Amino acid sequence: MQKWLSVIGMGEEGLTGLSSIAQTLLQQATLIVGGRRHLAWLSDHPQLSQQPQLAWGSPIETTLEQIIGYRGQPVAVLASGDPLCYGIGATLLRQIPIDEITFLPVPSAFSLACARLGWNQTEIETLSLCGRDPNLLHQMLYPGAQLLILSADRQTPLIVADKLIQAGYGHSRLTILEHLGGVKECQHSRTAHEWQTLGQSSARSTHLGDGIKIADLNTIAITCVADFDQPAWARIPGLPDAAFHHDGQLTKREVRAITLSRLAPLPGQLLWDVGAGCGSIGIEWLRSHPRCRAIAIEQHPSRLHYIAENAAALGVPHLQIIAGSAPDALAPLPHPDAIFIGGGLTADRLLETCWQALKPGGRLVTNAVTIESEQLLFTAHHQWGGELSRIAIQRAEPIGQFLGWKALAPITQWQVIKPRK
């Protein structure tokens, strides 16, 4: 099928900034789709304003079905900036092959912001908070980081300022860039503490003081400055145990780092964290890459609370949490690329269920601390192969006026890769 769907990026200048190719495709369209802000620009162009129009609805799947109903006829979708940079492009590609789509991007908000600030686009962190949990910000914070964030609306900068302060980054410089690329372009820069103060003083007013009225269309630039006593959490496995709230059911730091190296997270892959405890394995799996996915399965009510709290605090609120006991709770879940069994290893048929659900080429890792659990691992090793390891950790602790070595409970670890058929 020939290309019938045109996805046209637009800047602040509206239709006047479109290329001649984009304008031709728009004029030929039997249907024009876009947000209400984009469609409003058509009213100044009599020929285009008479063409059939469709605004994005909720749920978005309904609008997608309507677009697909025009398959084979010329359809134009209006989008902001670069449709494939946190835009509608990725959503359309999940339903329609690229062979049927023409993308015509203009500079994204990130490109324009970097041009204004003199930032190298290959060295920055980017995030969209349009319809996404602001706690995602926590994963990206480290001293000296340069972040660019797409705002959902005028409230987003104040929410971000609050998150920075909570995370120990209140002295970070937060710049709001409004209407990038348009005649109303401007920017306002304050520390997170100063933005919070302005927000509190404004109460319900749309003005923040100092003559500032934040526009709904804005991009946030952050130069991260950590408080002097704020620890920096690395993204490689092995966060300090103190990074997690827990009741003692925690895979200790050294063992956790070894375990995650065995699980070998890759972008886009799915982990089952079975018997998740406080969620440390699943959380560190997700922190390794923004596209990693994880499901934490836990039956203990208070630990379910710890998992959610830790996931939000460490920047991975998208961790999926399942309340239930394995193996029964595993049946409806999508097949994983990796499985970690941290608790409940002796549950009837748990190992067999996990092995059957694991994708070919997937990794299964489990840690045992009891003799009964070890016996199960020896049997599994005999049946499915893999590697058995013994992990013994000692930490220096005070003994009177001196230091002595205190051993943690030794861990028997089994790791196996499921053969590809």
Characterize the structure shown.
By secondary structure, the protein is α/β, with parallel strands linked by helices. It folds into 3 domains: 5-106, Cobalt-precorrin-4 Transmethylase, domain 1, CATH 3.40.1010; 110-223, Methyltransferase, Cobalt-precorrin-4 Transmethylase, Domain 2, CATH 3.30.950.10; 241-417, Vaccinia Virus protein VP39 (Rossmann fold), CATH 3.40.50. Helix content is 28%, strand content 24%. It contains 13 helices and 19 strands. The strands form 4 sheets. The chain has a 7-stranded mixed beta sheet, sandwiched between helices. Helix 7 (156-166) crosses helix 8 (192-202). The longest helix has 14 residues, at 371-384. The chain starts with a strand and ends with a strand.
Short description:
With 421 residues, the chain is an alpha/beta fold. The chain has helices spanning 20-28, 36-40, 46-49, 60-68, 89-93, 109-117, 156-166, 192-202, 253-263, 280-287, 301-313, 350-357, 371-384; strands spanning 5-10, 31-34, 53-55, 75-80, 101-104, 125-128, 146-150, 173-178, 186-191, 218-223, 270-274, 293-298, 320-323, 338-341, 363-368, 387-391, 394-399, 402-407, 411-417. The protein has three domains: 5-106, Tetrapyrrole methylase, N-terminal domain (Cobalt-precorrin-4 Transmethylase, domain 1); 110-223, Tetrapyrrole methylase, C-terminal domain (Methyltransferase, Cobalt-precorrin-4 Transmethylase, Domain 2); 241-417, Rossmann fold (3-Layer(aba) Sandwich), CATH 3.40.50.150.
